[in-house]
Every structure is written in C-alpha cells, then in structure tokens.
Design brief:
This protein is mainly α and 278 residues long. The chain folds into 3 domains: 102 residues, Orthogonal Bundle (Glutamyl-tRNA Synthetase, domain 2); 49 residues, Helicase, Ruva Protein, domain 3; 94 residues, Arc Repressor Mutant, subunit A. It has 13 helices and 4 strands. The strands form 2 sheets. Strands 1-4 form a two-stranded parallel ribbon. Strands 2-3 form a two-stranded antiparallel ribbon. A hairpin with a 6-residue loop joins strand 2 and strand 3. Helix 2 packs across helix 4, helix 9 packs antiparallel against helix 13 and helix 10 packs across helix 12. It is elongated, with a radius of gyration of 26 Å. The chain starts with 18 loop residues before the first strand and ends with a helix.
Length: 278
C-alpha cells in the first residue's frame, strides 16, 4: 500500500481468532477433518497430495447437506458472541449485531456437533413446501416418483428426525418401498401367533381401496377397536404393527405413517409380514 501510494486509503484489517481442532490442541487442518469425518471447506476441494502426487478430494459442507444459513450462523460464533443468550441469527441480524469489540482474542475450538445442531434448526424451520423438493430429487435419482402434496406430507412427519436434506430418503424410504427385512430385535420380542392374528384382523378391517392420506385418528380408533375385539391391549401390538409396515423399530407417528401409505398398502404389508413371519 505504501509503495503504491495508497496509505491514506488503506483499509483496516481484522480477523477472527484461530480455529482449534475439536480434540487435543493445535489449529484445525484439512487432515483433522479427514481424520474425524467432517468437512473443513465450504464446498468440495480438489487438490493433489504433496507426497504422492495423487489427486485428492475433500468434501465440503455444501455437498454434505449443510444449509448456507446454518454454516454462516455457526461461523459467526467462532470467536464472537453477541453478549446475550441468543444463538439463532439471520444474516441481517448478524450484520446489525456484529462488532469487533465482542470478538475474543483467544482461539476458538471447532465443534462439529454445534454446526450440525444449527443445520437441524434451519432445516426444520423450513416449510413443508420448501423441504419437499429434497425428497423429490432423491426419489428421481432412485427412479421413483411422488406428487408434491404427498412429498409435503412425508417431510412434515419426518423433519424432526433428520439432520440433512439427504436424510429424507433414508428415513422415508419405506413410504415408497415395502420392507423386505424386519427389525429382528422387535420380532423376537413382540411377534407371536396371537399378535400375528390380531394384525391379520386389523388388515381385514381396513378398506383395500382406500387412497393414501386416510385419517390417522380414524385408523387409530379402528386399531384400538380391533385389538379390543381380539382381547389384546394396543401396547402389546403397536411395535409389531410398525415393524410389519415399515420394517423399522422406530419412526414418526405410526398412524400418521399409515394414513400417508393408505389402507390398501397397509393391509397388503400386514398380510406379507404374516406370511413371512408366521
């Protein structure tokens, strides 16, 4: 700046504190990210290994499913704090709140769990209409289709269970593919001839021609009524019902799940489970 005669217009420079690796001491490096399984770049970085000359690829936060607003919010708190308990800031709020006098001189330890927490917050804050394209894009990659309305129903019940956009497919796969395997821990504990007979009775009580989006409360009331007729308590059968329909031991509200699937599909899955599990 002095050489070019720009001293009078030279900007003031400042930087946030050094970032430390999550474990141990020392500054955060690309190798720490590779070793601990998290990105250290905003986007994918392609380079060359200094020792072997082989091409290298380092994953980025964008490719890993982190939302821009989550990453910005997280980075702002590395070495700075607003002096309040508020943690969620939009970009405009950060611009208004940020000041250099609130920046710490001490290094900041990188916390991967915290950036994941921010991502979950911003993901769940999106509307169902905004989230549906994530699921629709994943379905297209697997040769499957779904209308916007159904996609919105699915993400509505799943978004509290996901951390990244790509999780919607993994968590919601059973909405599009009937299970071929069943959680064996539940089956060994909860499945028996009496439960199988009770679920068969429930399948018979469901109208086979019902379209998806049946009423969840109606399906729940019908289940409770059928269990009473079978001399069973609902709690004795609920886990087996979930596994028979989804293959999994846990998930979103069970009867919301059944409603989205539709009673025809549910009845067919219950019959299939009875055939396979006895």
């Amino acid at each position: 700046y002095r050489y070019l005669g720009w001293e009078k217009t030279m900007p003031q420079f400042a930087h946030l504190p050094l970032l430390l690796k999550p474990d141990g001491t020392g500054k955060l490096s690309k190798r720490d990210g590779d070793r601990l399984g998290f990105p250290v770049f905003a986007t994918e970085w392609r380079g060359t290994d200094a020792e072997t000359g082989e091409p290298t690829v380092s994953k980025g936060y964008r490719e890993e499913g982190y939302l821009p607003e989550a990453l910005v919010n997280f980075l702002a708190f590395l070495g700075w704090n607003p002096g309040t308990s508020q943690e969620i800031f939009s970009m405009d709020e950060l611009i208004q709140a940020f000041s250099m006098d609130r920046v710490s001189k001490s290094p900041a330890k990188f916390d991967q769990n915290k950036v994941k927490w921010f991502n979950e917050h911003y993901l769940r804050a999106k509307s169902d209409a905004e989230l549906a394209p994530y699921l629709l894009d994943a379905l297209a990659k697997h040769g499957l289709t779904c209308d916007q309305a159904k996609a919105e129903q699915i993400v509505a019940v799943m978004k509290e269970r996901v951390s990244f956009p790509q999780d919607f497919w993994q968590e919601a796969r059973y909405f599009f593919e009937a299970p071929t395997e069943y959680d064996q821990a539940v089956i060994s504990k909860k499945w028996n001839p009496q439960v199988s007979a009770a679920l068969a009775a429930y399948a018979e009580s469901l109208p086979d021609n019902s379209e998806p989006s049946s009423n969840a409360e109606v399906l729940k009331a019908l289940f409770n009524q059928t269990m009473e007729e079978q001399g069973m308590k609902p709690g004795q059968v609920l886990q087996a019902l979930r596994v028979a329909v989804t293959g999994a031991a846990a998930g979103p509200d069970l009867f919301e799940t059944l409603a989205i699937l539709g009673t025809g599909e549910v009845a067919q899955r219950l019959r299939t489970a009875a055939e396979r599990l006895g």
